[in-house]
TrEMBL record:
PROSITE patterns: NLPC_P60 (PS51935). InterPro entries: NLP_P60_dom (IPR000064), Papain-like_cys_pep_sf (IPR038765), PG_Endopeptidase_C40 (IPR051794). This is Glycoside hydrolase. Keywords: Coiled coil, Hydrolase, Protease, Signal, Thiol protease. One of its GO terms (molecular function) is cysteine-type peptidase activity. The lineage of its organism: Bacteria, Bacillati, Actinomycetota, Actinomycetes, Kitasatosporales. Residues 1-39 form the signal peptide. It comes from the Bacteria. Belongs to the peptidase C40 family.
């Protein structure tokens, strides 16, 4: 017998209660949304430790580049301010002399007026800034004595020179303003990059910081290994050079004339090498005495340094003036190969030449690395072999 009971709608039980299919779908959606909301979004979106490390390194690099721009703008601003001050002093002096010349012309004009030799308005016009047109129109010059004509000529000469200096001062002031704007822009860029780097590092957990330190340690160990390898190669090259020199000396001794001539050339070369070594020793002694002092961008000592500030101060201690910024320091000397690098040479880094250290031999250097660090002795491969740009001998 057929049942008259209505069929139950399809559904499921939730907590012992039968629910229709539509309600089930709604509950399922709510559950999924709840799971999504409770899931930690930072797990997928958070950058890896390697990405953080690269980003921080890039920010420090960009900050160092901005620091060199700041240094260049600061130096330009200082020079421009000095020029403006000189021009303004010159203009003030010339203006005083011009006023004295104008008074002398006024005396001449007044004298001519009293004797009836000139029109009554002559004195007034001579006291004006540009009496030349008046002279041309009235032929007053014909009535002036030789001394008076000389005074008039001198007045016009001084007036022209003073106007020119005033224009130069105005242009220099405009250039100074531009330099000051560049200085402020570079300063803001440095501060922004360093702030971004510190913010990234502050978000690392203690475990991540420990892992980052371990990565840095492995990099330092690899850099030290490469430095030792370079030291070995340089030692072998030096031994070979000495062997060849000894062989050449023996060959030269077989001929007295050849010996005399070559002896003179060898003496000149030795004197040159000795002179550089003496200066380099002083530069290195200064650099070593700065180890432990903090890196501060834009600093030139004596309490803190940035990279180019340290190298400039080191060579200044040796009696050699080199430019302030890396972009100029790289051109302030003779470029040599890394294999022929000698203590005292400057080692430049990166394609944009934004970092520099002073070579001490055996693949090592002294440099001011970056914000948060101190002047230290380190492998020239501290940031990988490809980061080395060039080697320059500054004296």
């Amino acid at each position: 017998m057929a049942s008259h009971r209505k069929s139950r709608p399809a559904g499921t039980r939730v907590a012992g209660i039968r629910t229709p299919a539509l309600a089930t779908a709604a509950l399922t959606s709510v559950a999924l949304l709840s799971q999504t909301a409770n899931a930690s979004p930072s797990t997928d979106d958070r950058p890896s430790l390697e990405e953080v490390e690269k980003k921080v390194d890039d920010l420090y690099r960009q900050a160092e580049s901005a620091t060199e721009n700041y240094n260049a703008a600061k130096e330009k601003t200082a020079k421009q301010r000095k020029r403006v001050d000189t021009l303004l002093d010159d203009v003030a002096k010339r203006t005083q002399e011009l006023n004295e010349a104008r008074e002398e012309l006024g005396t001449f004009a007044a004298a001519q007026y009293r004797t009836g030799a000139a029109a009554p308005d002559t004195a007034t016009f001579l006291l004006a800034d540009t009496p030349q047109d008046y002279f041309d129109q009235t032929q007053l010059m014909d009535r002036l004595t030789g001394r008076q004509k000389e005074a008039v000529d001198d007045y016009f000469t001084q007036q022209s020179a003073t106007m020119k200096k005033r224009q130069e001062a105005t242009q220099s002031l405009e250039t100074l303003t531009e330099s000051q704007n560049d200085l402020q822009t570079a300063k803001s860029t440095v501060q922004t990059k360093l702030s971004d780097a510190r913010e990234l590092l502050s978000k690392l957990t203690a475990e991540e910081k420990a892992r980052l330190a371990a990565i840095e340690k492995r990099k330092q160990e690899e850099a030290a290994r490469k430095a030792a390898e370079l030291a070995r190669q340089q030692a072998e090259a030096e031994a070979e050079r000495q062997r060849q020199e000894a062989a050449a000396q023996q060959q030269q001794e077989s001929s007295e004339s050849a010996s005399d001539s070559s002896s003179s050339e060898s003496s000149d070369s030795s004197a040159s090498d000795s002179s550089y070594a003496t200066k380099a020793e002083k530069a290195l002694a200064f650099s070593r005495s700065q180890i432990g002092k903090p890196y501060v961008w834009g600093a030139t000592g004596p309490d803190s340094y940035d990279c180019s500030g340290l190298t400039q101060a080191a060579w200044k201690a040796a009696g050699v003036d080199i430019p302030r910024v890396t972009y100029d320091q790289v051109n302030a000397g003779t470029t040599v190969s890394l294999a022929n690098a000698q203590p005292g040479d400057l080692i430049f880094f990166y394609d944009d030449v934004t970092h520099v250290g002073i070579y001490i031999g055996n693949g090592m250097m002294i440099h001011a690395p970056k914000p948060g660090t101190y002047v230290r002795e380190e492998s020239i491969y501290y940031d990988g072999e490809s980061s080395i740009h060039s080697v320059v001998r500054p004296a």
